[in-house]
Specification:
Length: 670
């Protein structure tokens, strides 16, 4: 089964039992709680466009996408950041899916089975299918034959549990991409339909034409707001409140929490270093003399011994001279060393031999009519031990067979690279890590801090007295996966939303290599950000308005740009090609008030002082140029539609999702 073997060659494919175990735990907790709060609402992670999303569907989609990530990345485990990315990607796909379903139902739009089949396995499959490397041939090109063969194989039944597990994983992989194609096609259909309804009209065309028909040459003087000291103007509370009310829609928000926290770093103690050193010394003689080095290493070392053949490029840098020096010989022992919190020692198990740097392999087709699949040049590290031993000890043109999940697979050695020196090196190393005693002592220290500081006043006082760092985390969303850069800190977010009042102090949280104690500083359930949170921004804007008034008074009575420039201690500048539809005024960027004034004002007439974005502006239009010819409405409409075409699909879907009455309760399940 060549295609599945190609997928397996990208990485170890594991079943997702952790996710299922967690799901079972959550379900068991619900069923056994006996709480009256256990009801239908607790079964759903959210609601989109009137459709409730059951947590089992959500978790199932996460498991499915996790399997896809495993297959395509060649990895079996993911860090917290990737796991968060998977969960968010699943939610976004569900948001788009359910939003589109609701609209599609209203207008009778669908993707038929025949249409989906054509998009997935037709003569010209969708890009989402043709970009999957699992279906690439030996030339790195998409092969429809490989795709069809893959689909034929996953329809079969396996001969045992292992085969069935591999087949099910392959089916999961295909089902994800088939659904992705369906969803993408539905999105494209919907946006194409709406795009045809949203079109520029003759009035739009008129404004667009007139907006670029007239071009002005302008002389102007600008004085930056930063040139006026803040002390020269006065901004009142009333001014700030007025701006806040005028711009309130800008500050719409979701509920949030703010916290401050301290950390108790968990690092190895002096006793931990002593214990690690003593352990390694006690193993030194046995490691140097044993006939069963694999047992000693794999029982005691952080780095397992698997008999790998190191080259000068792959051997750890600290052992390069030891392993490949001219006097290196079998059973040489490096002695115990310490660096980067790690004790290590090495022993040469075998040396003085060579192996190829890489081999070129191809998979031999198992059925008549199928083509062999070239895998390209591969190093030992890219292959499993059994396969590497056969591939790197064989000769060009030889074939060998490896047991695969669905039977056996035959490979041919197409070519062998130049052989270079190799060494089998056993490395026994132990990184010094905090012992359970050290961890317990640090935990008790954090716990005692809470016992002694049960109020916010005491908390802050002790932090200041002990000169501890108090870290802020503002505006935490209820679905945030972590706090700042703290590992496994979702639990802190959950606590912040469960706490009933500001000033609450948390219990001890274990976040990676830190213990954390948090203080809830703010509970914000308001629909809009409070004035206090945006006061600095508004004060700056109000201050600039006052500065514009101040600068205006400075030049009252002056009638030339030169006099105004002298008063402001600046110079007269020139802006060319100024239009209503432009994006630049001189070297100042989009100063739209100035651009509009330049087109509207009479030529060679001094404008009033304009309160721009960056400063106060006074200008004079010296000349205007008007485009020749009459407006062609059809051409203008076509150009407007073309400009909108790039962003319109995104805007349509974004607006659709915003209007889908989304209720996001994922925070209750993670």
């Amino acid at each position: 089964m060549a295609t599945l073997q190609k997928i397996r060659n990208h990485g170890v494919l594991l079943l997702v039992i952790v996710g299922l175990a967690m799901l079972a735990f959550i379900l068991g907790d619900f069923l056994n709680s006996g709480s009256s709060f256990f009801n239908r609402s607790r079964e759903y992670v959210g609601e989109i466009a009137g459709e409730k999303i059951h947590y089992s569907d959500y978790e199932g989609a996460i498991d499915q996408l996790t399997e896809v990530y495993k297959i395509e990345s060649g990895r079996s485990n993911f860090d917290e950041e990737t796991t968060t990315q998977i969960r968010n990607q699943v939610w976004q796909m569900m948001l788009m899916d359910y939003s589109l379903k609701a609209q599609a139902k209203e207008i009778g739009m669908t993707v038929t089975a025949d249409e989906l089949s054509e998009l997935c396995i037709g003569e010209k499959p969708h890009q989402l299918i043709t970009s999957r490397r699992a279906f690439y041939d030996e030339n790195g090109q998409f092969s429809r034959d490989l795709l069809v063969n893959f689909l034929h194989q996953i329809e079969q039944d396996g001969e045992d549990d292992a085969q069935n597990a591999n087949l099910q994983q392959a089916r999961t992989y295909w089902m994800y991409w088939e659904n992705a194609v369906r969803l993408t096609q539905m999105q494209e259909k919907y946006t194409d339909l709406v795009k045809n309804l949203i079109t520029a009209n003759k009035l739009d065309a008129k404004y667009a034409y007139e907006g670029q028909k007239v071009s002005a040459e302008v002389q102007y003087v600008m004085q930056s707001y930063s040139a006026v000291a803040d002390s020269l103007v006065s901004v009142s509370t009333r001014d700030i409140k007025r701006l806040y009310n005028d711009q309130k829609a800008k500050y719409k928000q979701n509920p949030s929490r703010s916290i401050e926290y301290i950390t108790f770093d968990v690092t190895p103690s002096e006793q931990d270093f002593t214990a690690a050193n003593e352990l390694m010394q006690s193993l030194e003689e046995e490691f140097r003399t044993t006939d069963d080095v694999a047992l000693v290493v794999n029982t005691n070392s952080d780095l397992m011994y698997d008999g790998r053949n190191y080259s000068e490029q792959t051997v750890p840098e600290q052992y390069k001279e030891f392993a490949f020096g001219k006097d290196a010989k079998k059973d040489d022992f490096s002695g115990l060393t310490f660096a980067d919190n790690t004790y290590s020692m090495a022993r040469i198990i075998e040396c003085g031999y060579t192996r190829p740097d890489s081999v070129q392999l191809k998979v031999i087709a198992q059925e008549e009519g199928q083509e062999d699949t070239e895998l390209g040049w591969l190093t030992e590290e890219q292959l499993g031990r059994e396969m590497a031993d056969k591939a790197f000890t064989g000769k060009k043109g030889e074939r060998f067979t490896i047991a695969a999940g669905l039977g056996e697979q035959t490979f041919e050695i197409m070519d062998v690279a130049k052989a270079t020196p190799r060494v089998k090196l056993a490395i026994l190393q132990r990184e010094v890590t905090p012992s359970s005693k050290t961890i317990s002592a640090r935990y008790n220290e954090a716990k005692q801090f809470i016992v002694n500081n049960r109020s916010e006043e005491l908390f802050r006082g002790t932090v200041a007295e002990m000169q501890m760092t108090l870290y802020p985390a503002y505006n935490l969303d209820k679905n945030a996966d972590k706090v700042s850069d703290l590992k496994q800190s979702r639990q802190i977010v959950r606590w912040a939303y469960e706490a009933k009042e500001e000033g609450t102090i948390s219990d001890v949280f274990e976040c990676g290599d830190k213990f954390v104690v948090a203080l809830l500083t703010s509970i914000d359930e308001d629909e809009y950000r409070p004035l206090a949170d945006v006061e600095t921004e508004l004060r700056r804007k109000a201050t600039n308005e006052k500065k514009a008034e101040y600068l205006k008074k400075q030049v009252e009575g002056l009638t030339t740009l030169q006099d105004i420039a002298a008063k402001w201690n600046t110079s007269v500048q020139t802006a060319t090609g100024v239009t209503l539809n432009g994006y630049q005024f001189g070297n100042m960027g989009p100063e739209y008030k100035a651009m509009g004034t330049a087109i509207a004002i009479k030529e060679n007439t001094l404008s009033p002082v304009i309160a721009g974005n960056q400063g106060a502006i006074v200008l004079m239009t010296t000349s205007r140029t008007q485009a020749e010819g009459e407006m062609n409405a059809e051409t203008e409409i076509a150009q407007l539609n073309q400009r909108r075409a790039y962003m319109l699909p995104y805007q349509i879907i974004n607006l659709l999702e915003q209007n889908s009455e989304v209720e996001d309760n994922r925070s209750n399940f993670q």
